From TrEMBL:
Key word Cell membrane present: yes
UniProt superkingdom: Bacteria
Protein encoded by which gene: ezrA
Organism: Geobacillus thermocatenulatus
Pfam short name (any one): EzrA
Record membrane topology: Single-pass membrane protein
Main location: membrane
Protein localization: Cell membrane
Keyword presence, Membrane: yes
Coiled-coil spans in chain: 98-153, 256-302, 369-410, 445-496
Positions on the Cytoplasmic side per record topology: 22-567
Listed InterPro entries: EzrA
GO terms (BP aspect): division septum assembly; septin ring assembly
Listed name of the protein: Septation ring formation regulator EzrA
Length: 567
């Protein structure tokens, strides 16, 4: 029973699906039918009727025939074919041959799409032809006005165009022929070819009017302003030569001739209507003439520089020579007192040598100025180089002088350091004296002798002639270490002796009661009398701490309090 129901339901489902699918296919047939009618109703006949208003000859006639045939073919053959295919599709549907029907409907849609494009193309081409005819007619009138205006200008202001006027005439006459050609092509119905003539004419007239605007200005430059500038340059050049300037290196005569030839080339370009080239050549000429003016001005400025700077540089060299002489005297004096490294002496000799060379060069330049055979710009360059070398040398000289002064300063500092160390040693001995020690331990005596010897070594080094400062500095360093070590040792020794003495005194209270303490303190006293303060302190502390732990801390505290009261 259940199976039957399932079969029944499936059957019902298939029928419903079948029905829905067929309906959809019929709807598609209706849509394509409507599309076919739409294509048939496109206004191609109306558009073609517009073409008939043009001259139906030549190119227009051929195009019209082609479009009419295309449209007839669409209406009489292609659209009826579509109609037939739609009947076939309906028949296939009625026979439930869905797959073939669907394939056929897709073909029909493709065909209609192609037909629609064809129709669209015809209408577009028709409009292009009609539009180009209208546009050309409007533009040709404007171009006639431009042409008339150009001819009038050429006639009224012919002189402002110079020799270019003849070629402008030729080109305008050529353009006039194009108007005639346009009329002939339009008459013959060749509207698209006529359109090309309009575009060519437009371009040519635009070029000619631009040229006619630019030529008078260009001619003015090439015939008047540039030659005038060249003449002015030539006058300036001659005048400067008369005033004694040496200008051979500028090759001015040859250069001016070159510029005159370039002006002639520019005029020839204008004559041939090569206006862009002429503009570029004129611009180059302006720049080149400006550069020539700059060269002459440069010579004037260089002359001023030489006139004002020569005495100043001479003064600089004299001043420097005097300074160098002072430095030489100072170096000789320092050399007697100090040991100068060979590299420093070499540096000074090199400065002296350079100074003589610079003086020689300056005198040579002076002679060349007096001879008046060298361009001022070259002399200026040489003087500038000379100044920069003088500056460099002054710097080296300054460094050398500083080095000499540093040597003397270093000696004074060394003597001050020696005095300070002597004071430190005296202070150490004063502390020993003040502490009234029974005597000095042998190691201490040796260190004291070493400190005295090191100070003596510094004093001896400072008395040497010439003075060797690196050796002095080394001796100073050694003495500093010895004296500082001795001072620290002195303070430490006095502290140990004092504390040993105080600890023995403190321990005396336990002598009678504790034989071990007595023995330890006696040993400490023996060591103290034999100047071994460090060991004496150790023995005394050991003896007392045996019976009274912390006793040494109390002794130290009391000693520190006494010290601070004394201070």
């Amino acid at each position: 029973m259940g199976m039957a129901w399932i079969v029944l339901l499936l059957g019902a489902g298939a029928i419903i699906y079948n029905h829905v699918y067929r309906k959809r296919m019929y709807r598609e047939i209706d849509r394509l039918e409507e599309w076919k009618i739409n294509v048939m109703n496109r206004p191609v006949p109306d558009e073609l009727a517009k073409v008939k208003q043009l001259n139906m000859t030549g190119e227009t006639e051929q195009l019209f025939e082609r479009w009419r045939q295309q449209w007839d073919d669409i209406v009489a053959v292609k659209l009826p074919n579509v109609e037939e295919q739609l009947f076939d599709a309906e028949r296939l549907l009625d026979q439930y041959r869905y797959r073939q029907a669907r394939r056929l409907l897709e073909q029909i849609a493709d065909g209609l799409r192609r037909l629609e494009e064809e129709v669209h193309e015809i209408i577009h081409e028709v409009n292009e032809l009609i539009g180009s005819e209208e546009q050309s007619r409007a533009e040709i009138e404007k171009l006639r006005a431009v042409h008339r205006e150009a001819k009038k200008t050429l006639l009224a202001y012919r002189y402002t165009f110079g020799s270019a006027a003849d070629l402008l005439d030729v080109r305008l006459t050529e353009a006039e022929k194009q108007f005639q050609r346009f009329a002939e092509l339009t008459e013959a119905g060749n509207y698209l070819a006529a359109r090309d003539v309009v575009l060519t004419l437009k371009e040519e007239l635009s070029r000619l009017t631009t040229m006619m605007e630019e030529i008078p200005k260009l001619l003015g430059e090439c015939q008047t302003s540039l030659p005038a500038q060249l003449a002015e340059l030539a006058d300036g050049y001659r005048e400067m030569e008369e005033r004694g300037y040496v200008l051979d290196h500028l090759h001015m005569e040859h250069t001016l001739q070159e510029k005159r030839e370039k002006i002639e080339q520019c005029l020839a370009m204008i004559h041939e209507l090569r206006i862009e080239e002429a503009k570029q050549t004129a611009a180059e000429l302006k720049e080149e003439i400006d550069a020539l003016y700059d060269l002459l001005e440069n010579e004037v400025l260089a002359h001023q520089y030489v006139q004002t700077e020569m005495p100043r540089i001479g003064g600089m060299l004299q001043e420097f020579a005097a300074e160098a002489k002072e430095t030489e005297a100072e170096a000789l004096f320092v050399q007697q007192s100090y040991h100068l490294p060979p590299s420093d002496l070499e540096k000074y000799r090199s400065i002296e040598k350079q100074l003589h060379q610079l003086q020689k060069r300056f005198f040579l330049i002076q002679d060349r100025v007096a001879e008046a055979k060298t361009a001022y710009s070259l002399l200026k360059e040489e003087l500038e180089q000379l100044v920069s070398q003088i500056d460099l040398m002054k710097e080296e000289h300054e460094q050398f002088r500083t080095m000499l002064q540093t040597l003397r300063k270093d000696e004074l500092i060394a003597r001050e350091k020696l005095d300070a160390m002597r004071k430190t040693l005296a202070e150490a001995l004063r502390l020993v004296q003040k502490s009234r020690l029974p005597g000095l331990p042998e190691p201490y005596s040796l260190e004291l002798a070493e400190a005295r010897r090191s100070l003596q070594a510094v004093a001896e080094r400072l008395e040497e002639k010439p003075l060797d400062m690196p050796a002095v500095d080394q001796a100073l360093e050694e003495a500093k270490t010895a004296v500082e070590r001795l001072y620290e040792r002195t303070v430490e020794m006095i502290e140990q002796a004092t504390l040993a003495e105080r600890t023995i005194q403190y321990g005396n209270r336990y002598r009678r009661r504790y034989p071990a303490v007595r023995k330890g303190l006696e040993e400490a006293e023996f060591l103290f009398r034999h100047y071994d303060y460090e060991e004496a302190l150790r023995q005394a502390v050991a003896a007392v701490e045996e019976v009274e732990p912390g006793a040494f801390d109390r002794v130290q505290k009391l000693w520190q309090e006494d010290n601070s009261r004394e201070q």
